[in-house]
Amino acid sequence: MTGQLEVARGYLDALVSHDGAGVAFAPGAVRYEMGIKTGRSGAHLRRSLSRGPQYRVIRRIYDLAATVDGDLVRTTYRLDAGLFGRRLATVRVDEDFLIPAAVPVIHRIDAWIRLPRGAHPTSE
Question: Is 19 helix (H, G, I), strand (E, B) or coil?
C-alpha cells in the first residue's frame, strides 16, 4: 500500500471511528461534497470527523475500491448510515483525495454521494 493510500484509508477509518485526531491533513485542506465546501482547514476537518453530527450517523464503509493516479487517490465505496443501531440508508460514495506523493497529506477532498441504483433509502 502506498503512503497516499494509507492516508486516504486513515480518513475513511476516521469516518467510522469518529476519531479524526490521526488523519494526515495539510493545514489548508478543504473538502467539497456535491460541489459545496464542507471543510475549510485541516483542523476543522479533524474536529468535524471527531464531533460533527453529520458524521455520527456513519456506521460502516464497505466494498472499497481505490486507485492512485499521480497525486490523486480515487475511492469508491458503500456507506451505511443509521441511528440507534438501525441502518437507515446505504449510499454509494465516490471520493477523490489530492494527496501529493512527495508529502502524503490530504490537501483536498471531493465527495459525490448517491443512492445505489435501484435502492430505496429504507430498504433492507
Answer: coil
Strand boundaries in 1-124, DSSP class E: 25-33, 36-39, 58-69, 72-83, 86-98, 106-114
pTM of the full structure: 0.89
CATH number for the 3-114 domain, one of 3.40.50.1240, 1.20.1640.10, 3.90.470.20, 3.10.450.50?
3.10.450.50
- Through-space distance between the first and last CA atoms of the chain, rounded to whole angstroms: 33
87-115 pLDDT, tens digit per residue, is 999 999 999 999 999 999 999 999 999 98
DSSP state of 116: P
